[in-house]
Amino acid sequence: MKKALVLFYFLVFYATSQLIWWGVMLVQFQPQRKPMIIGEGIFFLLIFMWGAMRLKKLFVREQKLQQQQQNFLLAITHELKSPLASVKLYIQTILKRDLDKEQQQVFLKNSLKDIERLDDLVENVLMTTKLENRNFNLPKEEFNLTELVEQIVDRLQKNACRTQVLKPNLQENIMLYADKFAISNVVTNLIENAIKYSPPCANVVVKLANEGNGIIFSVADHGIGIRDEEKKLIFNKFYRVGSEATRKTKGTGLGLYIVKTVLQKHNASIKVKDNTPSGSIFEVTFDKNAK
Fold this sequence. Notes:
Blueprint: H1 2-28, H2 34-96, H3 101-131, E1 141-144, H4 145-160, E2 166-170, E3 175-178, H5 180-196, E4 204-211, E5 214-220, H6 255-265, E6 269-274, E7 280-287
Parallel strand pairs: 2-4
Antiparallel strand pairs: 1-3, 4-5, 5-7, 6-7
Helix pairs in contact: 1-2, 2-3, 3-6, 4-5, 5-6
């Protein structure tokens, strides 16, 4: 950022000096050479304007990146402090008060939910670090994708709402050759996002099926939806839907970035479609023959 600023000021200084030089030349040289000097001046000004526009775009991009990084630090600080404070309060209450076994079980279960939330956050940060390492290779193996999705749905259902929220529609015994840990992260992020951006106790439909030469995994919600101009941006690192000033949902902006990057490394694709009457559908397609 500082280098770009120095370059910009250098261009301004250089352009000013050149304009002064051309002015002197126009006065001193013979009239027949004036068109050539004017032409050179116009050509330089066009190059200068092009460079200035490029620098402006660089400034804007750097400012956005810095703002996103700052928002990420604020978000991850909150995401860490909130469950830690909750777990601390539950444990202090259990230790200081004479609670019956049923009350203790409730407090311990709530503490476990917060610990699982912290675990997911740490996994996202670790996965992001691994994916950005060019030497990192995803260790692949064949596993039962249906069982993996069922386990994640069961865990997230317990943490979501007392009424039925997650509606799984899973074809049995679908096998996939992939990195089990990375795919688990993909499934978790997609389902958690659907819950996060949905109204309280709304239905989230999770589907898994064989279709032709592909395996289709989809998550459909009835939340706020995603505008067309944001559908490509949501997979950028740190990007989150909506404005930072009005956004109330929790998150770090890493989830969908991890999803997209992991799927690319598995030669899989993801589409974002509008749901009816509201919400979004994230549809992942795995190639059965990919190894």
